[in-house]
Predict the 3D structure of the following.
Amino acid sequence: MTLFISAQFAFRFEEPGDALLQFEAAALPEQRLTDSKTHLSEAEHCARVAAHDDIGERIWVRGNGEFEVSYRADITLERQLADIATLPALPAHLIPGEVTEYLFGSRYCQVGRFHNFVDSEFAGTSGGARIAAIHSWIADHFTYEPGASGAETGAADSFIERRGICRDYAHVLVAMARASVIPARYVACYAPDVTPQDFHAVAEVFLADPSVEDGGAWHLVDATGMADPAEIAKIGVGRDAADVSFLTTFGPASFLSSSVNVERS
């Protein structure tokens, strides 16, 4: 499977300021960048730094005035998929140290607000079966509605409103998984068939790997149901959307435009 990706966005520094960008697909064993090109406007400073969990890269930019980003890539995906519903949870005391942070609450995933709900709504399920039940519950109770949420909307808000976009769906699934003692992280990505086409967001859950004693592995889950995990190109991962925004500005700035197109071969 090969994806052809193109993305452009532009913003304006209202005065000299800094921005952190993360928009390039990550180079990973399961996704090979066969061709890629990034074009950035001239800036006072530009430097690449490692992203969260060393998946992908971020770019620091120091600039002033209008700044444009253009990106295109051809990506070959060779992801091995498992039937998540059949996978057990890894006992908490066996969860690796680098994964432990994904059990805790974060800015947009207020885990403590969901403990009672998951214990009652999904009683009798655990591990991958619990994740499958959460996925089905979201599909049955949420409405995909662009414009229904904003930059400060968290999982608890979305749970009350029962509507949102991919970002909100991912936050709710992540929060409910963590409340079920299943590590979960937020994934920024590209995928075909996303409507409207844009930067996409899914979740990733850490479950036991039956082929490795006391081992575990990450598995992609799209709460919106729009993206097939076999056709997802990861940009980066984090605790929630704050860790993997394609654009984070530090200082006055205005967003001008963006467009994304993802096609399969």
Summary: Residues 106 and 192 are 29 Å apart (CA to CA). The chain is about 20% helix and 40% strand. The chain has a mean pLDDT of 97.
